[in-house]
């Protein structure tokens, strides 16, 4: 259940940068929220309260998703899995290629870190079109993990990513929505 209006204190800490990365885009910059120690703690506490109780690991998507995953991991005493960009993992790994608006990208994960049936929470700082989150979902499924829930600081609902996750049968929750982007 999203109670976005309850998080207006956190919303006010997120800076909007107009025309970045291109004209007409309103960039929602969470770095200003991260600068605020009390705001960050409040954000993590509120997100932690939303996490399903039988979650085994938190999977964070590089790079800002690691910040969310680390905070939640500490708050909940759960291990975390890093979904990495190519060329970062030294061990045996699996990967998923996915399309971006311009070009493509790849996420990779170490083999053996997620076991069959492990319940994984997928987190990132922001969900827009959902391409990266869906790639993360695919990667966890390849390893045999189960994802029933995803969690984001910010959702840009007009871009449809959270709805794509919901159509895949996954809860997609966020603290803050910015409509009209």
UniProtKB/TrEMBL annotation:
Reactions mediated catalytically: AMP + diphosphate = 5-phospho-alpha-D-ribose 1-diphosphate + adenine
Does the record's keyword annotation contain Transferase? yes
If you read the UniProt record, what top EC class would you report for this enzyme, in one word? transferase
- Is Glycosyltransferase one of the keywords UniProt gives this record? yes
Q: What is its EC number?
A: 2.4.2.7
Which keywords fit this entry according to its UniProt record? Cytoplasm, Glycosyltransferase, Purine salvage, Transferase
Give every Phosphoribosyltransferase domain span: 46-144
Q: Which NCBIfam families match?
A: PRK02304.1-3, PRK02304.1-5
Summarize the protein's role. Answer: Catalyzes a salvage reaction resulting in the formation of AMP, that is energically less costly than de novo synthesis.
Belongs to which family? Belongs to the purine/pyrimidine phosphoribosyltransferase family.
The protein here is known as: Adenine phosphoribosyltransferase
According to its UniProt entry, this protein's organism is: Sphingorhabdus lutea
